């Protein structure tokens, strides 16, 4: 299994004061918000050892994610999670919603003293959805598989994943029929069956062709 490193971050920090890594979770879910995690690495932290077990959140067993996320949050200089609701996904589309969530995460960092304009922003994936969302003055670099290869992006990934899973588990109590404590809003068979039986809740993405969405598990 490939382990993330700080090799790229160290190289980028020769030209930028900090690195901010962003990664999204919940993009393909049928219900619930989309979330974007943001994690800040400065030169001092780029020389530290990567926390034990840190990986892209999809590669960390669910039972271990909270402890890994806690280590990641303690490791980075700052972290934040930005959100866009299912209603916003319906209103503006998933890509613009991702940008909105990222802008909110970066605003949270700014409120804690981070100066994003001094950063190189690593964005997991191949598309910059942050700049069109209105965050002018940032230098954004999309990197495919950043959450696999870059420790900062892996930290952002697992921090956001745990935050969103916690939220969906909490929503389960009000809507137990959909099984969100287990499927976290994704397209499981039991989730599809519940939608067929009960219709969609206020937390579902009503604009989505849910019947055509691929079943993930």
UniProtKB/TrEMBL annotation:
Q: Where does the chain cross the membrane? A: none
Its required cofactor(s), as named, are: Mn(2+); Mg(2+)
Q: Where in the cell is it found?
A: Cytoplasm
Question: Which catalytic reaction applies to this protein?
Answer: Endonucleolytic cleavage to 5'-phosphomonoester
Q: Which residues bind a divalent metal cation?
A: 23-24, 124
Recorded GO molecular functions are: metal ion binding; RNA binding; RNA-DNA hybrid ribonuclease activity
CDD domains linked to this entry: RNase_HII_bacteria_HII_like
Q: Which family does it belong to?
A: Belongs to the RNase HII family.
Job description of the protein: Endonuclease that specifically degrades the RNA of RNA-DNA hybrids.
What name appears for this protein in its UniProt entry?
Answer: Ribonuclease
* Source lineage: Bacteria, Bacillati, Actinomycetota, Actinomycetes, Micrococcales
